[in-house]
Amino acid sequence: MVTFLAGGTGTPKLLSGDEPVFARDSVTVVGNTGDDVELGGLLVCPDLDTVLFDGGGVLDRETWWGIDGDSHETNAELFRLADAAGLEEGPRYLDDDAQTAGREIARWRRFSGIAEFMTIGDRDRAVHITRTSLLDEGHSLTEATRTLADAFDLEIDLLPMSDDPVATIVHTPDGEMHFQEYWVANRAGPRVEGVEFRGAETAEPTPEVEAALADPVVIGPSNPVTSVGPIRSLAGVDAALGETPVVAVSPFCEDEAFSGPVADLMAGTGREPSTAGVAETYGFADAFVFDEADGTDLDRPVVRTDTEIDGPADAERVARACALALAAVGADPDDLGLAVDDPAELDGDDIDTSELPALGGKP
Amino acid sequence: MVTFLAGGTGTPKLLSGDEPVFARDSVTVVGNTGDDVELGGLLVCPDLDTVLFDGGGVLDRETWWGIDGDSHETNAELFRLADAAGLEEGPRYLDDDAQTAGREIARWRRFSGIAEFMTIGDRDRAVHITRTSLLDEGHSLTEATRTLADAFDLEIDLLPMSDDPVATIVHTPDGEMHFQEYWVANRAGPRVEGVEFRGAETAEPTPEVEAALADPVVIGPSNPVTSVGPIRSLAGVDAALGETPVVAVSPFCEDEAFSGPVADLMAGTGREPSTAGVAETYGFADAFVFDEADGTDLDRPVVRTDTEIDGPADAERVARACALALAAVGADPDDLGLAVDDPAELDGDDIDTSELPALGGKP
Hints:
The structure is a homodimer. Chain A is an alpha/beta fold.
């Protein structure tokens, strides 16, 4: 068994190989829920859904969110209605009282659905309705996610990080804003002065997540601040990561980010926006996967390969590098659900393992 | 000014003439909200929406609900998800605690959205999202309805009967059920043992409705029990109807109902399922419009015409009959917003006014 911490698109891309390096039924994914919002009364979980839709074979892999080929009739009509009625477009936060009313799990991230500022597809919306209705029927987010995973025939085990609310709030010179306002509405424009995980002080990881963190862990090239940070903000997670083999893939090549607002978010939270900064942020990581062009020198084991993931073959290569690194830092290869008998078979000319401790069976 | 009490399809059909007998900007429609439900977190107001969509020129006039040509991607996907996940189809009531939690106006009628048992179209859904979001932003249902009416360029003034919750509950041998479970899910199958307007004892008509009830009133061929009954259940409404000229169109021809479950609902609430029963139910009505084939003898003024409404010409004919009746029982023709100077011009061979008091200018 192996556990991936996932948020944004980095780790989902790593999981998207056609021929999985880790057998899918051996994989648990702990998904970030700090990005979630309640929009027009529906709990939308973008990071869970990217994994859900990709596992279900319906993800739009151009955008890495939403359902491929989905229509957007409702979303378009919401804009038409708002325009015709003279209602200002959003994001439209509900008022302060409403932020802590209603569904507990939606705290501090409740938006009106008028001129819906996130683009929800019509089939996509059915997922949010079903999830929210399961919550309203008394189920936890973990249970609701399992039900949706069943509906999409997911082979991996997909877990939300918590059944409690945690809202990622970005502090900027324009004031504080939920991550989705910062990212979707403002396209990461405002200067980041800090990031807060509201609710984290009382939120708990679920028992399922705690159990998953006892297995070897892969942190894909997700954003360390807003994709992995909310998971790490939960009590006991960092301690658990310190006790199990962990390999992390840098989302940078030295100080060049592969995608997204990761550099701004690293810098805005006092971190060096680079591979070195990621390594420092992940003090618990036992090994890293760096891009082959990344010359960052580290006092921990590193495996190098081309870490840009633009398709299944890339995903498989980086996953092989992760498996090699995990096996080199203490994970039992027999427990990882590898598709090969000997992890050394995962090695090849496209991966540089010279900085890893020796693998059993490998010279 | 003239006020219509509307529910179901009877009164909306009466309003659907191409050349309105009553100028549209002189018409107020008080809509029944006893049929409303909260479904998957959205407040759905079927009776308001039929008037809203018809006034906006987008109503599906085959079904008399929903938007013409709407797609149903979300609704279809909700069924697919429920089926794939092994979730039983609805109606799925939220639990008793939830029925009185959440949005005040949604009390006693809150359903999960799983396998959404009412067929909500994709553009239709945007209306429910906008309405519900306006409520969540702190507006009343009256205000939200006005905003939607603006978005659809409505010329008439559309008012929900109340900003408070009233839920029409049908009592049957199978137990009590919300009207939408009785009508949509069970197709009016269960035997009606009684009808309750839950919440009516504390709900109030809005000031806008109270003002509208000071004008002459037309009750179209809507169901007296579940379409008009909830409006009448509000404090002061019957008294107001007793003080103003009222004309009602019978939804029966003698004991034959034109459509819907009106006969079962009349019988199940101790009323005679017939025009005579309607006349008895509407003790406050000053005059009636009966079908020309309806021989019911009444000690109040009656105008007769073909009351089956299958298109704009039918709607205009019945509306002319209503105007003639109103003018005959005390409404000031100059205040009705009539399209003609003299109400007698509305008369014709297709309307039998011989049982009406004499109209000014008519032999």
